[in-house]
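#onboarding

Welcome to the new folks! Below is a worked example of what a typical request in this channel looks like: someone posts a single protein sequence, and someone else replies with the predicted structure as tokens. Don't worry about understanding the tokens yet, we'll cover that in week two.

Example request:
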Amino acid sequence: MHWVDVYAEQLLGRGKKHFVESGTSISGEPHLGSAEDLIISDGIAKAIIAGGGECKTIWAMDDLDGLRKIPPQLPKEFEQYLGQPAYVLPCPDGCCDSFADHFTRPFLENLERIDVRPEPVSVAQMYRDGKYDEVVKIALDKAAEITAIIKEVSGSERDDNWLPFFAICENCGCILTTQAYAWDGQKVSYRCKGGTAGKNFIPGCGHEGQAGIRQGKLPWRVEWAARWSHLGVTFEPMGKDLMAAGGTYETGKAICEQIFNSPAPLAVPYEWIVTEGGKRLGKSVGRVLTIGEFVDIATPEIARYFFIRSNPTSHKDVDFGLGIMKLAEEYETAERAYFGLETGLPEKEIEDVGRNYEISQISGVPETFSQVSYSHLISTVQVSRDWDHILETLSRTDNLSQMTPEHERRLKIKVNAVKVWLATHAPEDMVFQLQIEPPATEISELQKYALDDLLDQMKIIDWTPDKIHNAIHENAVSHGIKAGDMFKLMYRIFLNHTKGPRLGYFLASLDQKFVTDRIKHFSEPHPEKHGVKVDL
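Example response:
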């Protein structure tokens, strides 16, 4: 059974109505990893609905969190805003109403491209509208009990007069620098003493004042539990780090159950996404990898498949180079499995692999099968002038008889994705330019004779990738030439390069006469064809 169906079945066993929330701190451009819990949520929510249940999905934008550091994507001038809540910050480019709008709008728009549509909720607005009033008062009234829970679960100590509240300083506007020390049932007394954000200390302004409960926020572990209780959250995906023993989830669970008298949600842990070098994705790196960029080069369905294909706790690394080709091939295998056309998988895997494809669809599964591989399109788009020429080229190498208008729509998206990939992330040896005129290149006599024999074969074989590849390989072997050297020779005479795309697919995408004319240009009739014995 697919993992989304396992979770859905477990949740439906608890009841028919469900509520899932995901949260992201708005401190810059959300990276690809920020989309992970939303996509996991979406997969499970849809499985719950398909199983006869109901499920509401929200995305809590944690825009009341203070700005902790200046990532490379923000201008240096933003240092003046360190410690201030995100919702009050200006747009860094002056193009949007606010800092939060600047970064959340494109993130949500790109999620829609993969059919993930959570309801966005501003946490700052929830506080200002009084929706958290009740839980904030409970937390302040039971501060001593919360202190005891935190110590018991995590071992972390708090001062005897600690209060779970960060006020926004009325003097400097910072939220990370205040320390609450008294609660009179209506207002919190605080001092702006300064605070530590990660490894950085942000100095306070020294102001002392009072704040109402709508003029600040609960600390994260307490707020998480309060949110579960207030919204009635039944399940939530979360990074594996939050599930560590004595960590955030265990603390939040205890606070939710013991302080707010609400059941904690089912936790759905997931593995972080890492880059090819093994580094965890984050906003602090020089260039953020975004969900929009991923969709642009992978297509919506393949991008969604990346997150859906394996259990959330499985290892996930992202490589926008050759990794995109491998991911596309895996998706295409799943597509064939769904339609009962994949013979290279064990029988026990077929159902789940096909289900991966089904869940990855954005606008439903096509009624019929029609597939052009991503790797094949890498060659095709580089030798074709326009869309009509692409179809003409593909008609020589692929069976397009089953292609419906829906298939054509998808193919256009895939073609555009390949073009963007070639322009932005493709390894250098995958980007080529077909040499319209024969390039100047030196080849040996033996190679010339081999090309002459190959010419005879290429004139009569079926013009398919496999037949072309096999003919070149067999020709090399018969002439005592290493297959790799023969393939390099073919790349040289067509691309003026020693590497290139899959040779069989590449040549099959070209007109057969063009290929044979080029081979003829470099070939030389073997003397033995004319009864002359030679010793090479």
